[in-house]
Batch of 2 targets.
Target 1
Amino acid sequence: MKRAAWVLGLAMMCLSACTESFDLSFTWTSEVAPQRSVTVDNIDGNVRLRKGPAGSQVTGTIKVHAAGFKEKAQAEEAAKNVQIVETVESGNLVLSVAIPAEHRNKTFNLTFDLLVPENAAVSVVTDNGRVSVTGLTVGNIDTTNAPVDLAFTKAPLGVAASIRTNDGPVTADSHDGAIDVATSNAPVELFSIAGNTRVSTTNGHIQVRAIPPLAGEVFLATTNAEIDLGVPRDFGARVLAVTSAPGSVSVSSDLNFRPTGSAPNQAEGVLGNGAGRVDVRTISGDIFIHR
């Protein structure tokens, strides 16, 4: 018991005294082979990737925040000893973070702000950080407790862009290709999605403006919130939309919708030629399908 009390006392002393931090920013340049990928494997913090000029250079700024030190000089030294590790496999570039072993019990947060060649695909892994991608091909985005924002992006050929977070909203404005989004306790808003679309969240509304391919698919699911889906007038699909009271389902009259079944809080039928599929589900929320 005495030893436990002593350890607890040390921990409490550090909580009260280890409050010094240091911020360090530096420019970064890497090389990636044409038509290959760039992956940012961050430990914690924001990542912003934007389309740069064609070529092979990845350039930008990286910021290191080191915290939880007793003295500022210790925080500064630790920040300077954080390493960005470059790994190249088959021309694909991975940027990862190495924390000094003696400081792994401290707090480190890194922010990446990079320009990536327009012909490279990107993926991101981080925690507790917003991920923003503009003008690039998106492979996989994986973060926690933070938003994901896409603008003028596209999916790799034949593969869906995969977006994963929790407790963070996801937005996309103009995405070419399939997209698969999963979050929780947050809304999802996707506009001008030219591909198959799959969205899953909880306790957050879903708003999608989809332009699916011929025989394309749209799957949307949430709980305790509404779903608003817009599709082209000429899109053909089998439709199943399900909610629960007090929610309701409405399919706009400006779509060529032919009901094939009837049940409370549900709509089942065919849009146009019925070649694709629309599956929309929520609990206690309204569903609106329209042009």
Note: Residues 18-120 form one domain.
Target 2
Amino acid sequence: MRYISVIAIYFALINSAWSQNASDLAGNAINLNSYGVSLEGSGRKAVLGDVRRILDRVVAEYPTSPEAEIIRSGGSLVGLNVAALDAELAGQASVPQAMAPEGLMAGDAPAPAPGPVPLAPLDARERMRLVQAALNERGCKTGTPDGVPGRKTTRGYQAFLKKMNLNNASHPLESEAFWKVLMSARGEICEAPPVVPVSARHIPGKWSYTARCGKESKAPGLRVSGVLTLSHLGNNSFKGNLVNSQGLRARVTGRLSGRRVSLNAYFGFLLGNVKASGRVADDAYVVHGRDSNRCRFTARKR
């Protein structure tokens, strides 16, 4: 079986779309179970609860698979004893679930526990991604988990501490103490910010934007910033002009549909049109999207 890092496993749990078959899902459960060996108390129980939820997905989505049959019968999956897992979650296990040997049934003599399934090393950036994803899952928004603690991560972290009546002196962001509290917290800890209204009257004005072009774009490595000045045309349409950091200018037309914004920037005969579309964020007048050059952009209203 292919072994993957803890961060990949956790993203699989959050997004519920990472694995494509019963074997992959079961592999995620096995790896996450092995990681749970290093935890104690409520943090351990929270991780094992996630293991159980992955197993439930296997049964629900792949009921005829061999893995689903093993799970239903309380058997073992490469060191993960399902019956022992359920017993520990119910508070009945005297032996830690992840250390229970394969095939050990009630009344059997204890046998040496199998070693944990190997995991890829969890470096500092992967651990920070995991922390960011866990904060997002608990409603303390940190933005896209990228492993780099910036302003959004700090805001989400501080919001979590406030809700849990903790402080950053006793629970620094990258400390084991904070990690254990975060892993033991379940449900929506931070309240969702109010959703800002969006209509045609909210679009006119000046917008600052930045476009970043990745390897898959038509201009790899390019980073361009600029200003959009927009006015209302009527209904959900608007027009304006654009000036970017390369000194280029364009005439802009666009349309709003719900929270979706579509734009067309005409740079003249030689450069032609660049089309872009994105979505207005729920909590601020910020648009994230992609253009026809396959560059990603962020625009923020001034």
Note: The first helix runs from residue 6 to 15.
